[in-house]
Structure formats: structure tokens, C-alpha cells
Design goal:
By secondary structure, this protein is an all-alpha fold. The chain has one domain (5-137). The protein has helices at residues 5-34, 45-73, 80-118, 127-137. The longest helix is centred in the last third of the chain and has 39 residues, at 80-118. It is rod-shaped.
Length: 138
């Protein structure tokens, strides 16, 4: 594995976490427009928590990447043990990002599934429109 490949996974994870955050905000909007029950607003917590967790994992992986490169470029002569240690550290950070990416995609799919099941597709008319119509009929 090239050392630059460890940089790719945290970036992809950051993008997926941002998409999950946007999906959570769209879910909040759909819940407000559809005037759902209060317990359905708790469904938004799962994508928000996983999005924040994914940003934390991506930030940690990028920190490990920069720390490892700083160790490689420092000019200090190191033996094969230090090289393999740094390589294993970067592989572990990349693996953490890949696992978190799978969790993020699973939560994104679960959010889409729950949204399809729990939120009606038709938008109900706002309460003030219904009140206005009843006042006009009288």
C-alpha cells in the first residue's frame, strides 16, 4: 500500500459524513413539514451522532497520516522496525476509516428506509390554512 492511499479513505469518509449530515437536516425539514409526532424527531439523532463520529474518525486518521509523514521526513535515520511500525500505524488508521465508512453508509441506508416507512409522502396542508378555510365557510 502506498503511503498516499491512507489519505484517500479519511477524505471519502468526511464526504460521506457531510452527506449524512445534510440528509439529517433534510429529514428534520420533512418531519416539520409533515407535522409528525414528537417521538419521530428522535430518528434524526442517529444520523447526526454517526456523522459527528465519522468526522472524529476522519480527523484522527488525518492526524495519524500527518504524524507518520512527519516521522518519515524528519531526516532521522531509522531502521526497518520503525518503517514497518509507521506503515502498520497508517494501515490501522486507513482500516478504521474504511470500517467507519461502512457504518456511515449503513446508517445512511437505514435513514432512507426509516424515512420511507415512518414519514408520509404527501404533505399535509398547514394548520393555519385549515383554520382559514373553516373561518371562510362560516
Amino acid at each position: 500500500m502506498f503511503f498516499d492511499m491512507a489519505l484517500v479513505w479519511p477524505v471519502i469518509l468526511s464526504l460521506c459524513a457531510f452527506v449524512l449530515f445534510v440528509k439529517a437536516s433534510l429529514l428534520i425539514r420533512a418531519l416539520i413539514v409533515a407535522r409528525q409526532a414528537a417521538w419521530k424527531y428522535l430518528l434524526v439523532l442517529l444520523p447526526l451522532i454517526v456523522s459527528a463520529w465519522s468526522f472524529a474518525v476522519a480527523t484522527n486518521s488525518l492526524y495519524v497520516y500527518s504524524y507518520t509523514l512527519r516521522g518519515l521526513v524528519s531526516g532521522i535515520h531509522f531502521g526497518p522496525f520503525l518503517y514497518y511500525y509507521l506503515k502498520a500505524t497508517m494501515l490501522q488508521a486507513a482500516n478504521d476509516s474504511i470500517i467507519q465508512l461502512l457504518v456511515t453508509l449503513l446508517v445512511f441506508w437505514f435513514t432512507l428506509f426509516i424515512e420511507r416507512r415512518a414519514i408520509p409522502r404527501v404533505e399535509r396542508t398547514p394548520a393555519w390554512v385549515l383554520a382559514r378555510e373553516t373561518l371562510l365557510k362560516v
